[in-house]
Design a protein that fits this description.
Layout (H helix, E strand, L loop, with lengths): L3 H20 L3 H26 L5 H31 L45 H6 L4
Helix pairs in contact: 1-2, 2-3
Length: 143
């Protein structure tokens, strides 16, 4: 068997996978493209194993490991995509740049309310109150 035929097929599969990862916006199609790239690697491993006539069949053994890792990756990846789709309503990769919850502007007192727009935030309800104010504490400091 010539090594060129499976190698060319693997290159075509890998290039198709790279194009899919770079050009597609749907997360499921990106995962499918990653699977194409892994299958191209598997094809190369098996082809070189047959070409070298390895008695240990290391290429085939490594291919089994790659298949197992790819199955785990696809399972976890699809679970993440489904959770993101349920939460956001889209599986578009460009729209999923920020995966955190939308944060409030500022929460200085820890009550869950944003800071008022007019300047300083009110003191925490449990904080001790200085009757003279903050300016008095600086003015009365001994020299």
């Amino acid at each position: 068997m010539h090594l060129v035929y499976p190698a060319v097929l693997a290159v075509l599969l890998f290039c198709t996978g790279v194009y899919g990862v770079l050009a597609r916006r749907n997360a499921i199609l990106v995962l499918m493209s990653v699977e194409l790239m892994l299958n191209a690697v598997n094809l190369n491993l098996v082809a070189f194993d047959a070409w070298l006539r390895d008695t240990l069949h290391a290429g085939q053994a490594l291919t089994l490991f790659v298949i197992a890792v790819a199955a785990a990756e696809i399972g976890i990846g699809l679970a993440i995509v489904l959770m993101v789709y349920r939460a956001r309503g889209t599986a578009d990769v460009d729209r999923l740049r920020d995966t955190s919850e939308p944060a409030m502007d500022h929460d200085p007192d820890g009550t869950g309310r944003p800071a008022p727009a007019g300047g300083t935030a009110p003191a925490h309800p449990d904080a001790p109150v200085d009757p003279a104010g903050p300016a008095a504490t600086n003015a009365e400091a001994p020299a």
